[in-house]
Amino acid sequence: MTEERVYTAAVLIIGNEVLSGRTQDANLSYLAVGLSRAGIRLMEARVVRDDEAAIIGALNEVRARYDYVFTTGGIGPTHDDITSESVAKAFGLKLIRHPDAVRLLEAHYRPGDLNEARLRMANTPEGAVLVRNPVSRAPGFQIGNVFVLAGVPLVMQAMFDGIRDRLKGGRPQLSRAVVSTVPEGLLAKGLGEIQARYADLEIGSYPYFRRTGYGTSLVLRGTDQARLEAATEEVRALIRSLGGDPQDEQPG
Amino acid sequence: MTEERVYTAAVLIIGNEVLSGRTQDANLSYLAVGLSRAGIRLMEARVVRDDEAAIIGALNEVRARYDYVFTTGGIGPTHDDITSESVAKAFGLKLIRHPDAVRLLEAHYRPGDLNEARLRMANTPEGAVLVRNPVSRAPGFQIGNVFVLAGVPLVMQAMFDGIRDRLKGGRPQLSRAVVSTVPEGLLAKGLGEIQARYADLEIGSYPYFRRTGYGTSLVLRGTDQARLEAATEEVRALIRSLGGDPQDEQPG
Prior knowledge:
By secondary structure, chain A is α/β, with parallel strands linked by helices.
């Protein structure tokens, strides 16, 4: 195997509503799947409050550490929407009213409806490139390696789909999943041995409790298809050796 | 209002499956709601990979910063379950086989079924206090201000419910929510003015797009009931002044 460049990312979820339990975040899993398909490895995610110091602190840590950062939330018109100014401060850049964003909002709202609060949605750090919002028009933006996206899932998804061609990734991660009713405590030893022989793959073991009974899902990930198939076949053989009946599953 | 002690917490979600998008985390919102009821403010959450350095780095940051930390995931019997040893290393403590945990496992498994992999689930940092698992027996543990819980939601919830009386909190956050079809861009100015007058409360504005139409939910949180009621009434009046019909909503 040749050494290849691994592209990495973090997600920064901004919003008190996720930390209060009011809202169950739905953006992380969408971004995780999309990044994986783009050959970008999501290394960590953080949820922070609508608090300038918290946003700046977290953003500056992750943008230095990973190739890409995707933020969600806090770009609406109300007082608790402070993502744009916080991102500008994190970069040490001036916050400007982006002329193209103003034009988008002018085209969207009826004359007289584009008030000062709504115009705030055109604020970006100086030098930002807009991210299109086909749903409700108010754009996101990209500054450096940071993509600032909406929090409403429908809008966030449309924004992310629109920027995929700006993202550079490595070979996409491939995955296989095998499920059986063998408990993970019995699989553990053999599975650890397979993982040791396939250090280039990532093998995860996930117990489940379903109405139909309990068992274990084993998920294998890697970029080399032949290695992945070989390891998956060893996992199936391990399950059979323990009296189980391995079933292939959608890896998800 | 007298100045009161605010109790804070962070949640650390450990698991590649959440970052690959395979699993949608369900633990954060459960913990968020439970902590809020206990008068503890959830300040941030992080999702990290099954990677020792990542777990240690994140844990040492958040345990120094907040009163409590709750970790989920990575305490099973397989090779990818590395939370206990990572937590021990983060604290600079020896990893021991906890005798009470061994007894719990011995009582749970049939003779001969308690193999070395399963015994690993009895490992804790030296000095840890066990957290009971009424579902599948293998316990979590508490060390210092860190509670190490399971990743499977059913088990995590039972563990958390069992430790609530170990947690010291301040006055519980109260909340009110008012919903209307007035867009947040029209509410923004007046809402910002209300927030400025009620700096002790936290007022959030959340647009929604539902099958029945779109609108805005306004959520107010704070510990002083009279202030909360007064601010909520001002929000209702603001909505009416803009031609809307404010409806009370479950704040969630």
